[in-house]
Design goal:
The complex is a heterodimer of chains A (334) and B (224). Chain A has 334 residues and is of the alpha/beta class. In chain A, 35% of the residues lie in helices and 22% in strands. Chain A has 13 helices and 14 strands. In chain A, the strands form four sheets. A six-stranded mixed beta sheet of chain A has the order 6-7-8-3-9-10, sandwiched between helices. In chain A, strands 2-1-4-5 form a four-stranded antiparallel beta sheet, with helices on one face. Classes of the chains: A alpha/beta (334), B mainly alpha (224). The complex binds adenosine-5'-triphosphate and magnesium ion (MG). Chain B: Keywords: Membrane, Transmembrane, Transmembrane helix, Transport.
Chain lengths: 334, 224
């Protein structure tokens, strides 16, 4: 666990970057630090590995004050993914990834062998190993940045806007891969972003910062969407937080009505709704494993305002209209 | 001056190319290269650490910038004469004068190379847990090499051209051909000296270009 105890950072020149921050980042979980530009996210992150020294207060890792640790040794034990990758341009991709293991005393050959495996893990094929960073796309560079931070298998990872320099499609893909990786690895991660969607998607917990380096709210993504502590947080998480909050609710408990009026094939799979020019597309189906957000989306897009649920065999086994969904949500609220 | 007495006869006369003979062109080239290499070596030993220190720490940058300007404006021949009156004849005053010539470009380019680095990469190196000297030797120096080598090559060119002054104070080197040629009105000898110095300068620069290709990481050469 990483603990901020009443931490203040005032830079020379007088601007307060972090103002009395007390925060816990639980072990094995990803905590997203999110907030508008200049609110002290990067500064907070860099105080964990002593790249920045707090003006006052303490930062503890598993109860031990980082100020008492040897700087270089501390940093070798913490993976660090830098805003805009920060790869070494004079080293090959493979040697970039091997950096920390070599610092820790591994032979170059051992470190390279391990690096090769890691590259595959982050989705880069073997022929990237011999390239130089200038020969990679932004997304590929970010993957290398993540691999480099993971190379020594550190229990803690600091990630400063690791997915910012790529287009939305690639970012989406990196997110998916990253979540899968984190599921395996279970690192304690502090991830900085100014994108609330990214924070909500990746974070087990989200810490929202406001201007002046103050913590506005910390909680699970669901708590944040359901109960923002004040107008700033409400505004920051966005007007559509009601709809977005539904992504955390499973459709398993949602009552359905019997299938009626839907055209089915021999196996009971939906063909569409009856229409003048043949069956009209249902717009997709959901299962018990989907979120209520998926159900809401289907109900909105359906030509008849009804979402279709299917079982594991693909056969339709229930219907939900948007009235049903609204009633269900209203009932849940009271 | 009689123009038809200036020709390539001296340069092309095989007798002047005899290996090992005291006054032959190969012997003079060897001595000339000797002064050049010594001056570059001493200059590098002096200027490189200072430039790296200033670039790494950011302390004393005024020194790197002003030493460059001051050094460039010192006339080497004048300095040499002054040193000879102080120290007497010999190799020492020549080496000092030539070293003063090469220090400014090496110092300035080392500093410039270090300053031109992407600070985020240096920051990343520290963030990975490199110690200060590891950051210097594994990241800053290799990344500064292209600019640094540029300064070193221009220092080498200058010193090859200027090492002719050694002959002015009684030493060897290709300057002998110029000075002795002038003394006895043998302008073909002067021409031979000038041509050999020019060709030597080109060859030295070419070999340094090869060295640069070899020691600078392909990752820093742009993409192709
Ligand atoms: N080295 C520094 N010296 C002085 N002031 C600094 C320094 N680094 C950051 N600051 C100031 O501290 C404040 C917080 O900066 P920080 O980089 O932590 O913000 P951030 O939340 O990461 O912003 P962004 O989303 O733009 O990266 C800003 O007002 C910034 O100008
Ligand atoms: Mg930042």
């Amino acid at each position: 666990m990483i603990t901020f105890e009443d931490v203040v950072k005032v830079y020379p020149g007088g601007s307060t970057a972090v103002d009395h921050l007390s925060l816990e980042l639980p072990t094995g979980k990803l905590t997203a630090l999110v907030g508008p530009s200049g609110c002290g996210k990067t500064t907070s992150l860099r105080m964990i590995n002593r790249m920045v020294t707090p003006t006052s207060g303490r930062i503890l890792i598993d109860g031990e004050d980082v100020a008492g640790r040897d700087e270089a040794a501390l940093r070798r034990g913490i993976g660090y993914v830098i805003q805009h990758a920060g790869l070494f341009p004079h080293r090959t991709v493979l040697d970039n990834v091997a950096t920390v293991p070599v610092l820790l005393g591994k032979t170059r050959r051992e470190a390279r062998a391990a690096a090769q495996e890691l590259l595959e893990r982050v989705g880069l094929s073997a022929d990237f190993a011999k390239r130089y960073p200038a020969q990679l796309s932004g997304g590929q560079q970010q993957r290398v940045g993540v691999a480099r931070a993971l190379a020594a298998d550190p229990p803690i990872m600091l990630m400063d806007e690791p997915f910012s320099a790529v287009d939305p499609v690639v970012r989406e893909q990196l997110h998916r891969e990253f979540l899968r990786l984190q599921e395996d690895l279970g690192k304690t991660i502090a991830l900085v972003t100014h994108d609330i969607d990214e924070a909500i998607k990746l974070g087990d917990r989200v810490a929202v910062f406001r201007q002046g380096g103050r913590l506005a709210q910390v909680g699970t993504p669901r708590e944040l969407l359901a109960a923002p502590s004040d107008d700033f947080v409400a505004e920051f998480v966005g007007r559509d937080r009601g709809l977005r909050g539904l992504s955390f609710d499973s459709a398993a408990g949602l009552p359905v009505r019997p299938v009626d009026g839907l055209l089915l094939d021999d196996a009971g799979r939906p063909l569409g709704w009856p229409g003048d020019d043949g069956p009209r597309d249902t717009g997709g189906t959901f299962t018990k494993d989907d979120s209520l957000r998926v159900v809401a989306d289907l109900a909105i897009r359906s030509p008849v305002g009804i979402a279709v649920r299917v079982g594991p065999d693909g056969a339709a086994d229930g219907l939900v209209s948007h009235h049903d969904l609204a009633d269900y949500l209203a009932g849940r609220r009271s | 001056m009689d123009a038809c007495r200036v020709n390539l006869s001296y340069l092309l006369d095989p007798a002047h190319w005899e290996i090992g003979a005291a006054y032959s062109i190969p012997t003079l080239i060897l001595a000339h290269l000797g002064y050049t290499v010594l001056a570059l070596l001493i200059g590098t030993v002096v200027a490189l650490p200072v430039g790296l220190y200033i670039g790494h720490t950011g302390r004393g940058s005024f020194l790197a910038i002003n030493a460059g300007n001051a050094g460039r404006s010192l006339p080497t021949l004048g300095l040499l004469m002054l040193l000879v009156t102080l120290l007497g004849l010999g190799l020492l005053p020549v080496l000092i004068a030539l070293t003063v010539l090469v220090v400014p470009p090496i110092l300035t380019s080392t500093y410039a190379g270090m300053r031109s680095l992407d600070r985020r990469v240096v920051d990343a190196a520290r963030g990975m847990g490199m110690r200060s000297w590891q950051v210097l030797t594994r990241v800053e120096l290799p990344m500064a090499l292209p600019v640094l080598m540029g300064g070193f090559r221009s220092a080498a060119l200058q010193v090859v051209a200027t090492a002719t002054v050694a002959a002015a104070v009684g030493l060897s080197g290709l300057g002998r051909l110029l000075i002795d040629g002038l003394a006895v009105n043998d302008y073909s000898r002067v021409l031979a000296g000038a041509i050999v110095v020019a060709v030597l300068a080109v060859l030295v620069d070419l070999s340094l270009a090869l060295v640069q290709r070899w020691i600078v990481s392909p990752g820093l050469k742009g993409t192709d």
